[in-house]
Amino acid sequence: MFKMVYLCLVLLHIFLSFVPIQSAPRKSLITKLPGFSGIIPSKHYAGYVTLDKIHGKNLYYYFVESEGNPSKDPLVLWLNGGPACSSFDGFIYEHGPFNFIKPKTKGTLPTLQLNPYSWSKVSNIIYLDSPVGTGFSYSRNESDYYTGDTKTAFDTHTFLLQWFKLYPEFLANPLFIAGESYAGIYVPTLADKIVEGIEAGIKPKLNFKGYMVGNPVTDHKFDGNAIIPFVHGMGLISDEIFENVTKECRGKFYELGSNGCTQVLMNIGEILDKLNMYDILEPCYHGEKEENNESYSKLPLSFRQLGKTDRPMPVRKRMFGRAWPYRAIVKDGYVPSWPELESNSGGAPPCVDDEVSVIWLNNRKVRRAIHTVKESVVKEWVLCTGKVRYVHDSGSMIPYHKKLTSKGYRALVYSGDHDMCVPFTGTEAWTRSVGYKIIDPWRPWLINNQIAGFTQGYANNFTFLTVKGSGHTVPEYKPHEAFHFYQHFINGLPI
Question: What is a GO molecular function of this protein (predicted)?
Fold first, then answer.
């Protein structure tokens, strides 16, 4: 009898060893999405992780399981920039499971169609609204809306530790952090916090493997100094203007110096004022809708097609942008959000129309379906909020990149080469300044035997890559190319 009981226990142990843990919270499962009539291609979950019960401090996440093998595929945390811009920007406009088609009838929802280049084809992905106050994340204590790089990294690390307690079945999956724009600050600071936690033995132990950043804000000298040479190289200012500004500013374009330097920079700002800073090829119209604009309709078709994204959704219409020249507009370390720069209480950055996302995410049926907090707590979703008071307190990211990669964590730094906001020239320069040996010299990378961009690989798995013809948000402008390098990077394959 004893032997029989013992045998049963052994068999039960063996059985349980092969049964995957399934503890994802059922109440967070998304069963339908308004605007989508098909079958959701993988499991979606959404909800809140509480960081501080006393304050009522909560971060909102939307989790998409991989359409491949969710138990084995990498898990990626995606962060949009701003600071304080919602990661639904990435979900709706860039690499989420759906393409959102703008409704033809006012008052109706966008139509959702499957995105063939969704990053969920090859990975599990968490879209996180961070820092608190961004998107659907909130606190009942408004003092939490005063934050910065250090606090945001701490909070997001806390989020991950708590999230894995809700979804322990993904703890063994390779973990990557990814983001773009001001997430060039979020990602390295968070990665550093994760590594510190791993080394300190904090539980649960995260299976962190590396990170990727796109058109990343990194270092005010390298980023700021890159703009004037970039616009000159792109033919946006003349040789004479370039020679004059170089002389007046003594080659330091990242800081206002003499009155002559300030004046010539302001003159360049006026020259470039109506350009789309996120993609210099894409038109930036103001006022009337493009399709109703008589002057627009008379333009040659070839010009009207400039800079259009490959996605089957309307290009985000561009508005008048006044944020020139790009530099951290900092007072006592404080970084104003785009809505503050535009004198709005919330909305989109300059030259970006968030109409499709605003319509969908502020619909009551959608909000119920994706488990957001009640409208009495978060009245409305905005792409980039003006209520977060953010301090840049972490300095240059270059030491972070060197520290992380020297410890064996993989890093991919990519740039759309027509972005004037964070030009690739500055990013190329700072990646070279890290000082690693070049092991994969500058070369084109190809898709279907066509050049998709250029890349240079350094020691310690540190890679720089450009995407030809892309603007600031690479997966939006070049979804096929973005999917290609993303899939290769997270699986450790050469690009």
Answer: serine-type carboxypeptidase activity
